[in-house]
Model the fold of this input.
Amino acid sequence: MALPKELSTIKRFGPRYGRTTRHKIGLIEHAQRQKHKCPYCMQLRVQRLAAGIWQCRKCNAQFTGKAYLPAKKKMTAQELITQIATQEPAETHTPAVEQEAEVIEAREEQTVSQEQ
Done:
């Protein structure tokens, strides 16, 4: 039976190491050898240089990531604040929340009146 293209690199192992292990390695190697999106210029030109070191072939940016896949770019505190400020405020008072608040207030009033 022929192997799918993404698992063709595991032929070098032959019958060694077991089927499951070989297939996991094949999928990881297939994912790591693909072109990935650069977090700086957003082009699909990122390739792996070494374990955890990635480089964009377009803007020549080098950055660290995970060993087999580049990690997403982490946001700085200023970028996060800007993103939160530009978002519309979410509606926090829903009818269910208001009902629960009324029930809690009623219970508190009952406990206060029982203590007196």
The mean pLDDT is 80. The first strand starts at residue 46 and ends at 50. Residues 81 and 87 are 10 Å apart (CA to CA). Helices lie at 19-32, 77-86, 95-115.
